[in-house]
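Changelog-adjacent note: as of this version, every example in the card shows the full chain rather than a window. The one below runs 192 residues end to end.
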Amino acid sequence: MRIVCASANLHKAAEIADLMHGVAELVPRPAGLADVDEHEDTLVGNARLKAVAVCAATGLPAVADDTGLEIDALGGAPGVRTARWGGEPPDDARNRARALRELAGAASRTARFRTVALVRFPDGRELVAEGTCEGSIAGAERGSRGFGYDPLFIPAEGDGRTFAEMTIEDKHRLSHRGRAFRALALLLSPPA
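Full-length structure tokens:
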């Protein structure tokens, strides 16, 4: 099955391609396609906006995801606004700096990542899967791999490393996105 990747984020598209390998042939997002205004107040809503737009533009099934970082000490912020929390245009370094600034002196640094992965078909059908990764926010950035909040996020099921300190295989095994796309792959796979 050919599915267009709705993400314009090259790092995220590479992760999705990795995770969908063997289940679907992932086709890159068309180069001239405008960005979608992610104005919904849920992860599912924003993933749907992106998938619907790319599906309509290409006539092919489209896969999109949306991810939120929920920091308990900040009442669940940044949540659905994770990518743009530091301002416009989105900037990973600004987002991480804001997280560290707002958590300065916090007694608890627990957090979780949630990802919704959604495939939209030209006939209007949808498949939706979710993945969650519990963890905490480090006191300083650590590691050089990954993107987004990876240098700050320490998964609870890991060994104390941030996502940015892990190999891509270790990250995929534990991450919210890995869990969401493995669940989506099961939904897309024909019954044995």
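Structural remarks: The two ends are 17 Å apart (CA to CA).
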